Every structure is written in C-alpha cells, then in structure tokens.
Amino acid sequence: MKVFNIPTTKKDFFYKYLVVLSGIVDIRPVAMRVFAGFLYWNDYYKHIDKEERNLLIFNKETRSKILQGIDISRASLDNQLTYLRKKDLLLGNTINPKYEIFYDTHKELMFSFKLEDND
Questions:
Q1: What is the pLDDT, as a whole number, of residue 25?
Q2: Domain for residue 93, yes or no?
Q3: What is the SS3 string spanning 19-36?
C-alpha cells in the first residue's frame, strides 16, 4: 500500500480532502471551496443531531461566514449550491453521506482500483 502524508490544519483539512477526491469527483474549484466550507461547519456542529445541524449549516449566518471565507457574492454561492446539488454532493440542504467527513475520525482515505482487462 502507498501512503502519502498530507500536512494540513483543521481549517484546510476539508478542502484538501476534496482536492484528493477531485480525481474521482469532477468539481469546479469555487464549488470545491464552498463545499469545503459546508463540510467544515458540519464538523463544527457535529455534536448536534443531524436534522438540527443541517438547519444550522445551511442558515443565512453560516452561509455568510462561508461567503466571507472565500470572497464570493451571494449570487455566486447560490449558483455553487445548485451545482453541488446537480453533482449529488448536496442532497437538498444536506451533505450527501457518501462525502461527509469529520476531522477527528476520518484521517485516512483508501482507494481501491477495479482493474479491467481491456488492454
């Protein structure tokens, strides 16, 4: 098994996670930053049950914090949210569980390649 150590901080962890996944999930750079912001706030509120957490991370105040962090307009944020929903990274106002990750419990990713015999 190959191991690549990626130095990070909690603030950058979610963005770097998406950068690693970008070879699998095709996502635009601005949308990646937006989604990383939602992953960060989802982790921040992880002690709250999922339904209440979703209300918190998708509310106006949290959206404003994400806007400030990446310096985009509210209209651009709305466009990125539509894009993330089309890519199934967001399911309505919920993070798709397939891509949900928490800083303190998910420190490793494993990839399994399914090789096809089409040489």
A1: 86
A2: yes
A3: HHHCCCCCCCHHHHHHHH
Torsion sign, CA atoms 101, 103, 105, 107: positive
Retrieve residue 36's tokens.
Answer: 């990383």
- State the residue range of the domain holding 67: 7-119
Contact 18, 24 (CB under 8 A): no
- 3-27 average pLDDT score: 87
Q: How many CB atoms lie within 10 A of CB 27?
A: 20
Per-residue pLDDT at 115 = 81
How many domains in the chain?
Answer: 1
Domain contains 105: yes
Give percent of the chain above pLDDT 70: 95
User: Is residue 1 a part of any domain in this protein?
Assistant: no
Averaged pLDDT, 74-96: 96
